[in-house]
Amino acid sequence: MDHEADAYRTDLMTITRYVLNEQSRNPEARGDLTILLSHIVLGCKFVASAVNKAGLAKLIGLAGETNVQAKEQKKLDVLSNEVFVKALVSSGRTCVLVSEEDEEATFVEPALRGKYCVCFDPLDGSSNIDCGVSIGTIFGIYMIKDKENVTLEDVLQPGKNMVAAGYCMYGSSCTLVLSTGNGVNGFTLDPSLGEFILTHPDIKIPNKGKIYSVNEGNAKNWDEPTAKFVEKCKFPKDGSSPKSLRYIGSMVADVHRTLLYGGVFLYPADKKSPNGKLRVLYEVFPMSFLMEQAGGQSFTGKQRALDLIPTKIHERSPIFLGSYEDVEEIKGLYAEQAK
Ligand SMILES: O=P(O)(O)OC[C@H]1O[C@](O)(COP(=O)(O)O)[C@@H](O)[C@@H]1O
Ligand SMILES: [Mg+2]
Ligand SMILES: [Mg+2]
């Protein structure tokens, strides 16, 4: 029966055990982040279950509203947002929440306040819901300065100040990827146990990849460095093989593949959208944090993404992230243009 045991992960490092271990590395930690993360994990399990049943439980389709980005909200966008807001508030560890689905930041009532801000995209890639393609949740966590005196400034911080970030991908399996600033680890939900088990310890992105990932339908409006980079991917002049193109259209799924296989994911600026499409606080920053923690890089076309200081909660930024050398090449093309 040995081979059967081999087919299962019997070490059972659950996400709870992992986070508790991390907590014990810091003698000053009082368990607040551990509790907050356990509430996020609960939210992810809830959404994973709703996504699995979406077609059956009439959760497919539009909710009838548009959100602050003038995007039509899907029923699952609305449900996921409610789940995460409730999970985060009831943790008693948050004081400000920024969600893609809410125009304004939510200030938690004083009695339930804790010392963290959470910025999140409750359901990323929601245009893919109705055809069953992978979607996800993205989150970034900051510590605030003074919980008696919380302002919007507490969330408008550079991404490098984050204390933790992660995403959960609802795909062929449900995978939660997390960093608390000490590397990146991936956990897969075992539906029979209802637990996330460590399946991808200490993820490191390959230094150079064979895949590029971009919406090429926007190519006619790209700037020169982006156009040159994609041209080099397809027609390399150094004798190397062309890169493969993979684009799902769900940032979580495209970034997850990039993290595991290497390569680069880009959502650049273009003539129609000079700030690109993806939102700084809950898409660009958490994914950039994970990339850097895994040994990759993230660049906006002008600077290291995590050095950006947002001025609005729904601000957007162009983004190029992935394998260190691939992003280095893009940085070189922007530097050349700036000469
Ligand atoms: O359809 P496009 O323009 O290629 O955009 C795809 C991008 O838009 C997004 O779907 C935006 O996310 P939301 O679904 O959370 O609004 C990203 O997940 C994805 O990377
Ligand atoms: Mg999104
Ligand atoms: Mg979304």
UniProtKB/TrEMBL annotation:
One of its GO terms (molecular function) is fructose 1,6-bisphosphate 1-phosphatase activity. Keywords: Carbohydrate metabolism, Cytoplasm, Hydrolase, Magnesium, Metal-binding. GO terms for cellular component: cytosol. One of its GO terms (biological process) is fructose 1,6-bisphosphate metabolic process. Its cofactor is Mg(2+). CDD domains: FBPase. Pfam families: FBPase, FBPase_C. It catalyses: beta-D-fructose 1,6-bisphosphate + H2O = beta-D-fructose 6-phosphate + phosphate. InterPro entries: FBPase_C_dom, FBPase_class-1, FBPase_N, FBPtase, Fructose_bisphosphatase_AS. It is found in: Cytoplasm. PANTHER family: FRUCTOSE-1,6-BISPHOSPHATASE, CYTOSOLIC (PTHR11556:SF41), FRUCTOSE-1,6-BISPHOSPHATASE-RELATED (PTHR11556). Belongs to the FBPase class 1 family. This is Fructose-1,6-bisphosphatase, cytosolic. It comes from Zizania palustris (Northern wild rice). The lineage of its organism: Eukaryota, Viridiplantae, Streptophyta, Embryophyta, Tracheophyta.
